[in-house]
Design brief:
Number of strands: 10
Largest sheet: 8 strands, antiparallel
Structural class: alpha+beta
Radius of gyration: 28 Å
Shape: elongated
Number of domains: 3
Distance between the termini: 43 Å
Length: 460
C-alpha cells in the first residue's frame, strides 16, 4: 500500500513538473514576444482607433471643401473637369468623383509634378473651391502610419510581423490566463483588488486581455489581408482557387491583359487582382465623361463611386466604390470608345472567401454598422493599448536591475515542444518563421559568445 502511495505521489510530482515546465516555456515565449512587439501593437491600436472615425474627422477638417449651397442647376462632369484642366494645364486628370447630393462638391483627382491632388469643384457652377495634397491629408497619413509606419515596404513588413506575433501573444496569453482551479473567478474574470499591488497589476493585464481577446484576434485577422507579403499571397490563392471571385464574371467577350485592377484604380480588396480588359475599338470616337456618368447610373453604382479615367489608348474607364457596407461594393470596367461594359464585378460575384474578407474589412474599418461598429472598434483599440501599457509596466516593476527578468529556461522538453509549435505557426506566417531564424542565428553566433549578454537575456 505504501509503495502504491509513493508511486502515485511520484507520478503526480512528475506531472506537476511537466505542467510547470510547459507553463514556464509558454510564459517565456509570451514574455519576449510582448517585449519586442508591444510598441508596435500600441501604435496600431492608437492609429486604428483614430482611423475608425475618419468620416467624422474629415467632415470637420474639410467642411468648407466638402459642402456647397444647393441649387437647381448644375454643369456637366466634362465641364467640371475642363475647369480643372484650365486651372492646372500641366496636370494629368486621373479620377472624377461625382457629387453625391445637391449640397456636396465634386472631386477631380490630378497628378502634378509627382504629386497627386484632389480638386473640389462646385457642381452647380463649375467653380473650383480648393485643393488638397493627398499625401498631406491627416487621415491618409494616419492610414499610412497604421499600415506601414510611414516607412514603405520595410514598414509594411514590420506591421505584418507584429500582427502575426500578436496572434502568438493571444494564444500564449490565453494559456497563461486559463484558471488552474476551475472554481476560481477572481483573477480570471474579474481583477483582485484586495491582494496587493503586484497581484492587481497582473490582473489588470490578464483579465482585460481575456475580455477583448476575441475582438483583438478579429482585428488582426481582418487586417492581415491588406499586408504586403502574407496578404498578397493569400489574395493570389483566393483568386486562383476561385473562392475570391469566380473565373467567369465577364459580360460579353472582353479582351484581357496582364494589368491588374489595383494598378489602374483604387478598388475593393476582392477586385484588386482582377485582370483589366482592354479598349480595342479605337476607330470610334471616345465616349465623354458625361456618358460614363450616365452609364454608371444605369448600372446602379452606389453613391460615392469614383471614375478612374484611362491614360492609355487601350485603357478603360474603371468605376469603383468603397461603400460603407460590403454588400454595396462594385468594380466595373467600361470601354473608353463605346462605353460597353467589359466587366461588372459586384459583391454577389465574390466567392465565399471574397465575401468574408470584404465583410471583415468593412467591420475592421468600422463602417459596416455605422457608429455602433465604430464604438465597438474603439473599445477594442483602447483595450489593446491598455493591455500593452499594463504589460510593459508589469515587466518594468518586476524586472531585476541586472537583467531582463525573463522566465528561466524550463528543464525537460517543454521548451522544445512549444518552440516546435511556434515553428509550425511560422510556416503559415512566413515572417514569423523568418524572425525565428534570425533569432536563432543571433543566439548561436552572438548571444552565446558574449557571456554578459547571455546572462542579461537568457539566464535571467
Amino acid at each position: 500500500m505504501q509503495e502504491k502511495c509513493e508511486e502515485s505521489a511520484s507520478t503526480t510530482k512528475k506531472s506537476t513538473a511537466r505542467s510547470q515546465g510547459l507553463y514556464k516555456a509558454i510564459w517565456r515565449w509570451h514574455f519576449y514576444a510582448g517585449l519586442v512587439f508591444t510598441p508596435f501593437l500600441l501604435i496600431l491600436a492608437v492609429t486604428g482607433g483614430m482611423y475608425l472615425f475618419k468620416p467624422q474627422i474629415e467632415e470637420k477638417l474639410y467642411h468648407d471643401l466638402y459642402h456647397v449651397q444647393a441649387q437647381s442647376q448644375s454643369v456637366s462632369p466634362s465641364a467640371q473637369v475642363q475647369a480643372v484642366k484650365e486651372k492646372y494645364p500641366d496636370a494629368d486628370v486621373l479620377t472624377y468623383k461625382p457629387s453625391e447630393r445637391s449640397t456636396r462638391s465634386s472631386e477631380v483627382g490630378i497628378s502634378l509634378k509627382d504629386h497627386t491632388y484632389t480638386i473640389y469643384v462646385n457642381p452647380h457652377n463649375g467653380h473650383i473651391i480648393g485643393k488638397l495634397d493627398d499625401s498631406s491629408r491627416l487621415m491618409n497619413q494616419i492610414e499610412e502610419f497604421h499600415g506601414e509606419l510611414m516607412a514603405g515596404t520595410a514598414g509594411d513588413r514590420i506591421v505584418e510581423l507584429a500582427a502575426c506575433w500578436a496572434i502568438v501573444l493571444i494564444v500564449t496569453g490565453a494559456f497563461l490566463w486559463w484558471p488552474r482551479k476551475k472554481d476560481k473567478i477572481k483573477g480570471v474574470l474579474i481583477p483582485r483588488f484586495s491582494k496587493g499591488k503586484n497581484v492587481l497589476m497582473r490582473d489588470l493585464h490578464a483579465v482585460p486581455a481575456f475580455w477583448i481577446s476575441a475582438g483583438m484576434l478579429f482585428l488582426v485577422l481582418t487586417g492581415l489581408p491588406w499586408s504586403g507579403l502574407w496578404g498578397n499571397a493569400f489574395q493570389q490563392v483566393a483568386t486562383n482557387s476561385g473562392v475570391g471571385y469566380p473565373p467567369s464574371i465577364w459580360v460579353g467577350s472582353a479582351p484581357t491583359s496582364t494589368v491588374q485592377t489595383k494598378d489602374v484604380a483604387d478598388v475593393p480588396w476582392g477586385a484588386e487582382t482582377l485582370e483589366v480588359p482592354s479598349s480595342t475599338a479605337s476607330q470610334y470616337t471616345k465616349v465623354s465623361l458625361d456618358d460614363i456618368v450616365t452609364i454608371s447610373r444605369e448600372q446602379h453604382m452606389h453613391d460615392g463611386y469614383t471614375i478612374s479615367i484611362p491614360q492609355e489608348p487601350q485603357g478603360v474607364y474603371t468605376l469603383s466604390v468603397f461603400s460603407p457596407r460590403a454588400q454595396d461594393e462594385a468594380t466595373i470596367h467600361l470601354d473608353q470608345y463605346t462605353g460597353a461594359v467589359l466587366a461588372d464585378y459586384r459583391y454577389d460575384n465574390y466567392g465565399f472567401m471574397g465575401k468574408l474578407i470584404a465583410l471583415g474589412i468593412t467591420l475592421h474599418k468600422g463602417t459596416q454598422f455605422g457608429f455602433i461598429n465604430q464604438l465597438i472598434g474603439l473599445i477594442i483599440c483602447i483595450g489593446i493599448a491598455g493591455i500593452a501599457i499594463s504589460g510593459a509596466l508589469l515587466w518594468w516593476k518586476r524586472k531585476p536591475d541586472k537583467n531582463m527578468g525573463a522566465p528561466k529556461v524550463p528543464e525537460g522538453n517543454a521548451m522544445r515542444i512549444v518552440t516546435c509549435i511556434i515553428v509550425v505557426f511560422g510556416i503559415f506566417f512566413p515572417l514569423v518563421g523568418l524572425s525565428l531564424v534570425i533569432v536563432w542565428l543571433l543566439d548561436f553566433f552572438v548571444i552565446k559568445r558574449i557571456p554578459a549578454l547571455k546572462r542579461f537575456l537568457i539566464n535571467a
